[in-house]
Design a protein that fits this description.
With 148 residues, the chain is mainly alpha-helical. It is 61% helix and 0% strand.
């Protein structure tokens, strides 16, 4: 979706939330396989991007349910403490909801995820057709959590 260097394109709240979930999925899958004690720094880029997207949705795009239609870019450059506690709380809610959603999807699709992982280990590359065969063509649709 976006990172610090990109212009923000026209994306929906649902797209941003789903993108955050995708970015958390690798770490979630690794934790499922190896446990929390095996957590390492491999997902740092994904976690950084997920955090930036949640923060941008809350502080710049007016997408947070509690803070409402705000863009705090200029305000925050003058006053670092303006709404900081509320922003922090809302940020943690967004990330927490994304973690819950991602865990649910990873758990629900675990068999297919393992199948795809084995195919990638064997071939290193999977074509779209192979991915579709493993994952199926089912469209997954979830409503955005009411809390965000």
């Amino acid at each position: 979706m976006c990172n610090a260097e990109d212009q923000i394109s026209n994306v929906t709240k649902e797209e941003i939330f789903n993108d955050i979930c995708v970015l958390l999925a690798g770490q979630m899958a690794k934790t499922k396989i190896a446990g929390d004690e095996a957590m390492d720094s491999g997902a740092v880029s994904d976690l950084s991007r997920a955090s930036l997207q949640a923060y941008t949705a809350i502080t710049n795009l007016g997408m947070d349910k509690k803070l409402g239609f705000v863009n705090l870019d200029d305000i925050l450059s003058f006053d670092n403490y303006f709404l900081s506690k509320k922003i922090e709380k809302r940020f943690l809610i967004w990330i927490g909801e994304a973690q819950k959603r991602t865990k649910q999807i990873v758990d629900d699709k675990w068999g297919k995820i393992e199948q795809l992982a084995l195919a990638l280990i064997e071939k290193e590359i999977a074509e779209n057709k192979e991915i579709d065969e493993i994952m199926g063509e089912e469209k997954i649709s979830y409503k955005i959590p009411m809390t965000i």
